[in-house]
Please model this.
Amino acid sequence: MLELYTWGTTNGRRPIIMMEEAGLPYKIIPVDIQNGANKTPHHLAISPLGKIPALVDTDGPGGQKVTLFESTAILLYLAEKSGKFYGSTPAKRADVQKWFIFNVANILPTFAIMRQHKELEEVAVKFLDVLETQLSRNDFLAGDYSIADMTPITRLVQFADHEWMKTRPNVARWINKVSTRPAVKKALEMKIG
Ligand SMILES: N[C@@H](CCC(=O)N[C@@H](CS)C(=O)NCC(=O)O)C(=O)O
Model:
């Protein structure tokens, strides 16, 4: 059984998208980060910084229990476990990994820090232009829908109506297409805790 310790935040919803998309059965364990439930010895034993999301797989490889923190490491684990959304050939997998890491290294930190530092907007817009070019040639970031699309959507969906999208129609189309997939919609709207 996959047990996801999480809360209703952008990082917290990311693994839900993948479990829904891959059809993996899972259980949500709400961890209220406002009341310190993420700093209990039990939670710290799974996630050393006391952050959500964290995942416990009671049936990992060889029947062993696996515990994970970092939402993007959880996505990689679930992609390996399910064999889904991770590129069906070595070349496609390399493409997925390239776009997955582009998002982890650039989009996620920039959009997170941007809330505090307005000047980073210029950088964010540059990254959006990279996405716009890629999405003008492909329906999804790595060709077929994959974990590379799941990674940034919980953050970028909040920019769906932003004026930036007026001049980036392919990013706008992609946000709409990904965020309205039943699994993504369910993860974005799920009431947690
Ligand atoms: N890089 C981490 C970030 C996790 C993170 O920052 N989680 C926040 C909620 S979105 C949290 O647990 N905050 C509570 C705290 O740090 O005390 C990931 O992607 O999982």
